[in-house]
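Table S2 (continued). Query chain:
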Amino acid sequence: MTALNRIPEYFLSVKPFVMLSIIIIIMAVIFRIRLATAIKPSLSLGIGFIGIFIAFDYLVGSSNLPVPDTAWSPPAVLINHGPAKPG
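Corresponding output:
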């Protein structure tokens, strides 16, 4: 029984970008996409998230200023008043 408990614990202990890649591969297999075709996009997405985390950690860690939580306000303004406004 402990072996069955270790599988979810291990899966939930990995970093988000690794988990995202695994989930994308599993979804691709469920939708009957060949494994060779599914691996490259899922790894590209994971590598992109690694880059985002590295940039965010660098920007937050290199300054002594507090980071304001702007929530969804800036993206909402861009979406509603930008050139690609829906509707």
